[in-house]
Amino acid sequence: MVGKITRAYEREVKEGDVKMASPKFGMSILFFFLCISFCSSTDQSFQQCFSSHLPPSNITYDVIFTQNSSQYSSILQSSIRNLRFSNASKPRYLVTPYNEDHIQATIICSKEHHMHVRVRSGGHDYEGLSYISDVPFIVIDLFHIRSVMVDIKNEYAWVGAGATLGELYYSISAKSNVHGFPAGSCPTVGVGGHISGGGFGTIFRKYGLAADNVIDAKMIDVNGNVLDRKSMGEDLFWAIRGGGGASFGVIFSWKLKLVRVPLTVTVFKTVKSLEQGATKLVQKWQNIAYKFHHDLFVHAVIQVTNPNSNQNPTVQVSFDCLFLGTTERLLSSIQRSFPELGVTQENCTEMSWIQSVLYFAGYSIAESADVLLNRTTQSTQSFKGKSDYVKEAIPKTGLEGLFKMVVEEETSVLILTPYGGRMKQIKSSATPFPYRSEYLYGIQYMISWDVAEETGKRIGWMRRLYKYMEPYVSTAPRAAYFNYRDLDLGRNSYPNTSYVESSEWGLKYFNHNFNRLVRVKTLADPHNFFWNEQSIPVLRLE
Ligand code: FDA
């Protein structure tokens, strides 16, 4: 089999844009329109199929919602984070499983009924790929699959893929004040998408990515089999820890290694405008933040200040810190390495790790940790995000040009996240996430708006900014973070997808790990059932 895959891979590269294995369920758009007139009989037939694949004791009636169901809209909208997609094409059915059997039956019946499947955990995909599609589709929304079982004695947790990061952090902190988990800062992000795409947060310089701390997983594959680490094998287990779960199956739950956090952590925030010397501080930050002790995380957030006042808008940079230790230890480190920031005892606040989670999520630390259980996003904005990685500090002139562009758009935000620490120690092939030792920091570019008419202008600005940054960021490939999904980088054709076409975006996200992902996908899902606009392609075997 390995020889076959190698030959197929060589052939695809040689043939250039020769088309690849197409999804076997490929239903034409014409068929879809004809199908509309038979809607209700199809609905019945799908539901019958679904029930027929369940043991009688497991048949429940609130799992499948058709477009006529009264709850359809509220369930669909419940975790749409990016309003840019709230009026996009809607799924034929919403399936809200309670257990593995429901997911197995959905996969089998979707294949029988020639429907695509999209899987949604927290709904934060930047391009909405968990709930929109241009071809007839079903959304499996995992919001019922969110139990969190924490075992402090053995320092692990099993978490359902539909749980949010907030639910995970809350459950850990309810059992221990000296354990945590290294994942992202936004509590409504789902663990299904986040961990399968990498997942970094304020303690990743100490412990690596969320995906680096997965010790087992349960997944339902294209044949409806429930696999764990042992039965899926190390290649597939490797692929779903950073390569995106959606290409390979439906992740049901993760077994996570809990990490130790001190009783007391410290935060500070120092904000400087350009007029107060922010450019010089960013210049220095670029050269030192990745070398800080792994207990110290200081990211830089660039945005516009005074946008609505009488004063001219300008740029401000906020240096936000989490330190895994006391103020005393933090000050002795930061005052030595970054005295220009002028951090003093008064800027620092000591708190517990779970309070730091609230703090970075934008809550007051006086709030109860219960707020982390709130899953509803209630987003009222559209947004576009992009990402880059930096290997060499951007010179002063480059930063000045960048700030000039930032000031043009008052809702733009750039987050510069320092690498180094534990990220530097992990091999770039250990998981599909490749950007480890050579990188100083990652950049997230973000712009948001609330009036639909502004979409073109805002996205146009984002693309100009991305072009401007080209000389200053990584090249060959220009690196990007998979969890900051960006369809500008390229998209798979439907129904045929070529390796060469997918390499456009695949190498940017996964670099040298892309080819291994392609090999794993070819074995795990040879007929490309789990296709999406940026799913890993399948090699055409002879
Ligand atoms: P969603 O449900 O939209 O899924 C995203 C992708 O994963 C889709 O392709 C989906 O099909 C697939 N998927 C989801 N569940 C699956 C499952 N169970 N099995 C198989 N495939 C599945 N990132 C980061 O690293 N650090 C951070 O701090 C943040 N912060 C942040 C804040 C906000 C406001 C947003 C909108 C996003 C972030 N992110 C982030 C990015 C985030 O990690 C990324 O969008 C994740 O993919 C979101 O996962 P969800 O499950 O919420 O999304």
TrEMBL record:
SUPFAM superfamilies: FAD-binding/transporter-associated domain-like. It comes from the Eukaryota. It holds the Pfam family BBE. The keyword DNA repair does not apply. Signal peptide: none annotated. Residues 87-261 form the FAD-binding PCMH-type domain. Keywords: Cell wall, Disulfide bond, FAD, Flavoprotein, Glycoprotein, Nucleotide-binding, Oxidoreductase, Secreted, Signal. It is found in: Secreted, Cell wall. Belongs to the oxygen-dependent FAD-linked oxidoreductase family. This is FAD-binding PCMH-type domain-containing protein. The lineage of its organism: Eukaryota, Viridiplantae, Streptophyta, Embryophyta, Tracheophyta.
